[in-house]
């Protein structure tokens, strides 16, 4: 059995209080995103068009963009895609989600830095870009541009669902005392 001196493992310094608080927030928001993904699986939408969903987990990403730095919010978004994909979906669903989330996160991250811009508008832009990202992935996966015919309906739906998630995120931020 090797002795501790043989292992040559560099000891990591303990986390500072701020680092621990940051990781705790990341964990709580990532967990919240996953719970919201799960809840959303039980909410039937009266629209029979594939790809339309509320996007409740985006509430956690929006809150992360306000409370954390870009790295923390990105971790929440990536964990949302991976965990929800493994638990509630399949590899193809994960691919669509990743494409939509990448585009949505980039736009929301940029817009969230504009002072005075409502989190509701950021959420709507994110929802629109998420749907555009998913249609782009579908077009590549299916090898046809015909899926773009669904884009106008998905964009209109994104305005409604983005507003819902945006108002919910604003309410959460108000409750936390972190509103813009």
Q: What is the structure about, briefly put?
A:
With 180 residues, this protein is mainly alpha-helical.
Low-confidence stretches: none
Please report the number of helical segments.
7
Strand proportion, as a percent range, falls in: under 5%
Order of helices and strands: HHHHHHH
Instruction: Name the average pLDDT.
Output: 89
Query: Rg to the nearest angstrom?
Result: 19 Å
Shape: globular
- Helix percentage range: over 70%
What is the number of E strands? 0
Q: N-to-C terminal Cα separation, in Å? A: 57 Å
Sheet/helix structural class? mainly alpha
Sketch the major β-sheet. Answer: none
How would you sum up this structure, described in words?
The chain is globular. 36% of the residues are buried. Helix 2 packs antiparallel against helix 3 (58-67), helix 2 packs parallel to helix 4 (70-88) and helix 5 (91-112) packs antiparallel against helix 6 (119-142). It has helices spanning 4-7, 17-40, 58-67, 70-88, 91-112, 119-142, 151-176. It has 180 residues and is an all-alpha fold. The longest helix is centred in the last third of the chain and has 26 residues, at 151-176.
């Amino acid at each position: 059995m090797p002795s501790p001196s043989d292992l040559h493992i560099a000891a990591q310094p303990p986390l500072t209080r701020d680092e621990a608080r940051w990781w705790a927030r990341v964990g709580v928001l990532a967990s919240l995103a996953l719970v919201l993904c799960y809840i959303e699986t039980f909410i039937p939408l009266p629209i029979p068009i594939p790809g339309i969903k509320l996007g409740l987990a985006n509430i956690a990403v929006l809150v992360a963009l306000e409370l954390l730095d870009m790295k923390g919010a990105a971790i929440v978004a990536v964990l949302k895609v991976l965990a929800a994909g493994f638990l509630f979906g399949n590899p193809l669903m994960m691919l669509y989600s990743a494409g939509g989330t990448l585009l949505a996160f980039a736009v929301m991250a940029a817009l969230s830095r504009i002072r005075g811009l409502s989190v509701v508008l950021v959420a709507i832009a994110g929802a629109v870009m998420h749907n555009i990202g998913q249609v782009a992935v579908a077009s590549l996966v299916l090898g046809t541009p015909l899926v773009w015919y669904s884009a106008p309906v998905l964009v209109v739906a994104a305005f409604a669902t983005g507003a819902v998630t945006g108002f919910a995120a604003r309410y959460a931020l108000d409750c936390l005392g972190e509103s813009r």
